[in-house]
Design brief:
By secondary structure, the protein is an alpha/beta fold. 42% of the residues lie in helices and 15% in strands. Strands 3-2-1-4-5-6-7 form a seven-stranded parallel beta sheet, with helices on both faces. Strand 2, helix 2 and strand 3 (59-62) form a beta-alpha-beta unit.
C-alpha cells in the first residue's frame, strides 16, 4: 500500500461503512485522519480502534452535513485549522445518503432535497470551506465517492443517481478551477458493488459473494490520496 506518512486527511462519513474503512486504511498508511460524522459514539469507536492499532492519533469531530450552511462550514473549517495548526492534505467525501429504490411517483421533494444536501451540496460546501487549507498543502487530493448510476441513469434510482451525477460535475469543476494549483487535484472514485451497508440496502437479494470486500478497493483509495497520484485530476475511476 502507498504511504500517507505525515499527511493530514479528512474523511467524512467516518463512523461506519466505507468511510470507517477508508479512515482506518489511511491511518494504517501513516496519515493523521480527521474523522467526521454525525454520531459521536460510533465516531469514538473508530477513534479508539485506530489508537489501539498504534496508528497516529486521529481527530474526531461531530458535524451535521445535512443542515450546515455557509456559516457552519466556515466555522468548521476554522475548528479544523486550529486543531491541525493550519494543515490539511486532503478530503475523502464518503458521507452518503440513500433512502430506497422506488418509482418516481413515490418519491418526494423532501427525499430529493436530502439526497442533494448530503451527496452533492455538502461536498461542495466542505471543499469550498477547506480550500484555504488545501491550497497551502504541498500535495493535496480531494476524492469524491461516486456511483455508477451517476453516469448511467436507471429506473428507480431517481434522486440518488441524479445527486451522484451532480457530484461528478462538481469534481470536474474543481479540477478545472484548480489547474493553476499544481499541488491540488480532485477525482471521483467509484467503488462498485462492495459489502457496504448502502449496497446491502439497495440490493437486498444480492449474495455477499457477488460483491467485493473493502480490502479490494482500499489500496486504490490510499493510492489516490498519496503523492504517487500527483498530476492525475478530473478523472472518474471505476475500482
Amino acid at each position: 500500500m502507498s504511504s500517507l506518512q505525515n499527511k493530514i486527511i479528512m474523511v467524512t462519513g467516518a463512523s461506519q461503512g466505507l468511510g470507517e474503512q477508508v479512515a482506518k486504511a489511511y491511518a494504517a498508511a501513516g496519515a493523521t485522519v480527521v474523522l467526521v460524522a454525525r454520531h459521536q459514539k460510533r465516531l469514538e469507536k473508530v477513534y479508539d480502534a485506530i489508537v489501539a492499532e498504534g496508528c497516529p492519533e486521529p481527530f474526531a469531530i461531530c458535524f451535521d452535513l445535512l443542515t450546515a450552511e455557509d456559516k457552519e462550514f466556515d466555522q468548521f473549517a476554522a475548528t479544523i485549522a486550529e486543531a491541525t495548526q493550519g494543515r490539511l492534505d486532503g478530503i475523502v467525501h464518503c458521507a452518503s445518503y440513500f433512502n430506497a429504490l422506488s418509482p418516481l411517483d413515490f418519491q418526494t421533494v423532501a427525499d430529493w432535497v436530502k439526497l442533494y444536501r448530503i451527496n452533492t451540496v455538502a461536498p461542495m460546501g466542505l471543499t469550498r470551506a477547506m480550500f484555504p487549507l488545501l491550497k497551502e498543502s504541498p500535495d493535496a487530493s480531494v476524492i469524491f465517492v461516486g456511483e455508477s448510476h451517476g453516469e448511467t441513469p436507471q429506473a428507480y434510482w431517481g434522486g440518488f443517481g441524479a445527486s451522484k451525477a451532480a457530484l461528478n460535475y462538481l469534481c470536474k469543476v474543481a479540477a478545472d478551477e484548480w489547474e493553476r494549483f499544481p499541488n491540488l487535484r480532485a477525482n471521483v472514485l467509484v467503488p462498485g458493488a462492495i459489502n457496504s451497508p448502502q449496497r446491502i440496502k439497495s440490493h437486498p437479494g444480492e449474495s455477499k459473494s457477488e460483491r467485493k470486500d473493502y480490502e479490494d478497493v482500499l489500496p486504490q483509495f490510499v493510492w489516490w490520496a498519496s503523492e504517487e497520484s500527483k498530476g492525475k485530476t478530473g478523472e472518474i475511476v471505476y475500482l
